[in-house]
Amino acid sequence: MSKTKVSGLAPWEEPGSAAGRIGKGGVLALIALAVLLPLYTIVLTSLSSADTVNRAGGLVLVPDGITFDAYRQIFSDSVVSRAVLVSTGVTVAGTAVSLGVSVLGAYALSRPGTLFHRPILFCVLLMFVFFPGLIPTYLMVASLGLKDSYWSLILPSAVSAFNVVVLRAFFMNIPRELLDSARIDGAGEFRILWRIVLPLSKAVTAVIGLFYAVGYWNAWFNAMLFIDDTRKWPLALILRSYVVDSNPLPTATVGVNGFGHVAPPTLAIKMAIVAIAVLPALIIYPFVQRHFTKGVIIGAIKG
């Protein structure tokens, strides 16, 4: 009669065999290498001199001296430095607006007695299937006089139906008795939201805020449509125009730059712009990563 091991753990929580652990470790190592190698190449190329880039024939894999000339050249020019400020401002303001509207909408839709609860919820869910389209969106922005305005980078994408649904599901999981007791004590809806619901929803709020922030930081399409003044271009559009489309960089001039050195190669400047565009997400993500499982999975499944 065979012996059955009872551990009280789910099958996927059971410790695997040695071969299985080695295989998982190898797969994770390959995934990490696939992620880190491009970042390593981008940063190393941005820190390389013209001679190093020419010897490598393009992207640099083996370091041969470090120079920050590409970054000095970028921030000495008003185009990229202004774009960084624009992207930072749009990201901060847009995330605040989007998170505020999403939280208010999700909380209202999580309360069954809300006015027009079902029709509004139906419209939100309908956004998963239908999108207004590019032309109506453009005509709406133009008719509101938002062309060449920073608000045109925020308002058209201010609310995500997916994020509202995730927040609503999380809010519905909060015990109703807790909210009813606050109402008995005389608390209004806004006070309940601020004092009870949001403190209990820090995980999902942080994750949704990260989704919005990364979306605004990386957005370039709205800027291409609605912004004609190049001084208002965000960094993502600069990245697309100068790196992807290979338009000439105003800083990539041949000869001697303002620092008394030979100007860095165009490829090093392009990779420096890419590194600057990627850096904020790399800095913020580790602080929010611990909330992902609790915030998104619980918010999407429960309720």
- Tell me the span between the first and last alpha carbons: 45 Å
Number of strands: 0
Instruction: Give the helix proportion (percent range).
Output: 55-70%
Rounded to an integer in angstroms, the radius of gyration calculated over CA atoms is 25 Å
What's the overall geometry? globular
CATH architecture of the largest domain: Orthogonal Bundle
Mean pLDDT: 83
SS-based class: mainly alpha
Low-confidence stretches are: 1-6, 250-256, 299-303
The protein's oligomeric status is single chain
Please give a quick description of this structure.
The chain has helices at residues 18-46, 50-56, 69-76, 78-110, 117-126, 134-143, 161-172, 176-184, 189-200, 202-218, 221-226, 235-244, 266-288, 292-301. It has 303 residues and is mainly α.
Write structural notes for this entry.
Belongs to the binding-protein-dependent transport system permease family. Keywords: Cell membrane, Membrane, Transmembrane, Transmembrane helix, Transport. The chain crosses the membrane at residues 27-47, 84-109, 121-144, 150-171, 192-214, 267-288. One of its GO terms (biological process) is transmembrane transport. The chain is mainly alpha-helical and 303 residues long. The chain folds into two domains: 19-67, no CATH class; 76-301, MetI-like (MetI-like fold, Orthogonal Bundle). It is 65% helix and 0% strand. It is globular. Residues 1-6, 250-256 and 299-303 have low confidence and may be disordered.
Q: What's the layout of helices and strands?
A:
Blueprint: H1 18-46, H2 50-56, H3 69-76, H4 78-110, H5 117-126, H6 134-143, H7 161-172, H8 176-184, H9 189-200, H10 202-218, H11 221-226, H12 235-244, H13 266-288, H14 292-301
Helix pairs in contact: 1-13, 3-13, 4-7, 4-10, 7-14, 8-9, 10-13, 10-14, 12-13
